[in-house]
Amino acid sequence: MNGRIERAFARARDAKRKLLVTYLCIGDPNEAESLALAKACVDAGADILELGSPFSDPTADGPVIARASERSIAAGGGLTMTLRVATALRASYTELPLVLFGYYNPLYVRGTGKAVLAAREAGIDALLVVDLPFGHGDELMTAARANDLRVVPLVAPTSTDAHVARLLQHGADAGFVYYVSVAGVTGNAAAPLLEAAARATQVRAQTGLPVVIGFGIDGPEKAKLAARGADGVVVGTAIVREIENATSPDARIANVKALVSCLRTALDGESAPEAPHPR
Questions:
Q1: Active-site residue 242, yes or no?
Q2: Is 61 a catalytic residue?
Q3: Which among 33, 47, 50, 218 is annotated as catalytic?
Q4: I want to staple 115 with a disulfide (CB 3.0 to 4.6 A). Which of 110, 144, 175, 219 is the partner?
């Protein structure tokens, strides 16, 4: 395993800081701008990039990201474009963790093994497949391990302790756990982030893996709230909304940089949790 994800979390713990994971729907508004916006996120303080591969039926996504998927697909976006952007980012950032975020259908259509190999060759570190229950995608897990990739598990408020325990069997090399703060789609402003923070602490203790919280974090105050019990937070809808609302490429870059910088400043006010005990 290349260890970029593990090193990122270790650096954050050593510096007593929380990780910031930023999501972009690649291809929205186009390929060149997606690359520029990803670099803007890094420049403003993102620690990990989630590269969203657009899909025509994004069942886990709220209306903001669903519209971004539609715009991306109309501009020729898809798995191939997302991997091209990943390749360009890897050429610029040798240590930056890259997570391919998306749905199983595009991987299955290409051929799971071929898709995973292409992801590895593009410099991807981990896969986050939102519609494939963790522990049920044996073909994907096997291909990922053969290609030195993590498969990040999702834990939700409805997940039982037994489900979390199964992560120890299937997710020892997962890199981290993504805790979904609310049972629903992305962009839910009413997410119970204090409860999510408490649950993230429990999941870390159960699994020995770092935990990041996503869904419902749309600004600095909510990022700080979620980060109280987690190793980091994921922000997607708020960033995609800035891209959607801006009227020029320069404005999109400026707005995304400003938001990510505010998130970074807020998170830097939170100390990192204790390192998970090895299991």
A1: no
A2: yes
A3: 50
A4: 110
Q: What CA–CA distances, in Å, run from 270 to 16, 97, 185, 263?
A: 8, 22, 27, 11
The span from the CA of 4 to the CA of 123, in Å, is 11
DSSP 171-239: -TT---EEEESSSS-TT-TT--HHHHHHHHHHHHHHH-S-EEEESS--SHHHHHHHHTSSSEEEE-HHH
How far is CA 214 from each of CA 200, 203, 225, 232, rounded to the nearest angstrom? 11, 14, 12, 9
Per-residue exposure over 19-43, b if at least 16 CB sit within 10 Å of its own CB, e if not: bbbbbbbbbbbbbebbbebbbbbbe
Beta bridge partners of 20: 233
The pLDDT, as a whole number, for residue 62 is 85
Q: Which residues of 255-274 are buried (b: 16+ CB within 10 A; e: fewer)?
A: bbbebbbbbbebbeebebbe
Given the residues 47, 61, 218, 270, select the one marked as catalytic: 61
Note the pLDDT tens digit of each residue in 42-73.
Answer: 999 999 999 999 999 887 778 999 999 999 99
Domains in the chain, please, with CATH? 4-267 (3.20.20.70)
